[in-house]
Amino acid sequence: MKGLVYGGGGERSWAEVPDVVIRDPRDAVIRIDAVTICGTDLHILAGHVPEVTPGRILGHEAVGTVVETGTAVSGLSAGDRVLASCISACGLCRFCREGRYGQCRGGGGWRLGHDLDGVQAEFARIPFADLSTHRLPRPVTDEAALMLADILPTAYEVGVLNGGVRPGDTVVVVGAGPIGLAAILTAKLFSPAHIVAIDKAESRLQAAKNLGADVTLTPEQVPLGSIRALTGGLGADVVMEAVGLPETFEMCQTLVRPGGRIANIGVHGKPATLHLEHLWTSDVTITTGLVDTSSTPRLLDMLVGGQLDVSSLVTHRFGLGEIMQAYDVFAQPATTGALKVVLTR
């Protein structure tokens, strides 16, 4: 079979790799029907995630068909169409029992495309398959389901829920890439008064507007003044960092009101400054987090019920064998306008 192999130092290749096999009774093997590329994959290629070693198959967002299950898998059968979650969950450790699967200490957490081979391949082994996959209702397309593998639960849990978005809030999302757009989409579920999107790329600001942002700004348009004008001079109730750069995290600190919340979603590869010399008197709450995906069943229900429309998040489509080209397109959003790219079998 073939897979997208990380070669270290920014190198990647679509290469022949050993066939996947069941290694644990709780495993399943799935045939990959649709897969996408995440910004985290670009962070890996940039060297920001040193735990990922050369030779690793990348990818943690896929829809597939079950080919084989281990003897301890009870909820899946060959032929089932499933969403493979970006997070694996043992279901037994303290954190899994609390629904905090991202912190699993029983062999789960972020494994696929991290310290286990991932899903950007023709087939993939899914650990803890009963808890780490979701059978898909027939009306849900592969493309729509892919948006629930990572970006929707990440934005919803780490951004919207951690940020405590409430009706009437002013919410600022710094970074209108796929995660930031998913944060806008799911923040709308809580009826904020204003959603402000900040990004350098005009195409992404337009996408943010289409998904529900009522104010869009570039970093050069003095976001602080615009946001204070919306809020009687106070600042935003909730600010979400969805980029992962020191300068965007620092920007968030200038935009939040006293008593407000900063929810960091971005993957940071470098230290960022926390300006406690300004914030220590401000009662500001700062949250961080890795997605748990405990919200995936609820988000899937909302997708089936028509409460979430994710169709505009996909901008480019490729065959699985065109993954090298898809990476090139995804890595240059300013010139290609790429949001999510989908590759199908």
Automatic annotation (TrEMBL):
Residues 12-343 form the Enoyl reductase (ER) domain. Keywords: Metal-binding, Oxidoreductase, Zinc. The keyword Aminoacyl-tRNA synthetase does not apply. It comes from the Bacteria. SMART domains: PKS_ER (SM00829). Coiled coil: none annotated. The keyword Metal-binding applies. GO terms for molecular function: oxidoreductase activity; zinc ion binding. InterPro entries: ADH-like_C, ADH-like_N, ADH_Zn_CS, ER, GroES-like_sf, NAD(P)-bd_dom_sf. Its cofactor is Zn(2+). Belongs to the zinc-containing alcohol dehydrogenase family. This is Alcohol dehydrogenase. It comes from Actinoplanes awajinensis subsp. mycoplanecinus.
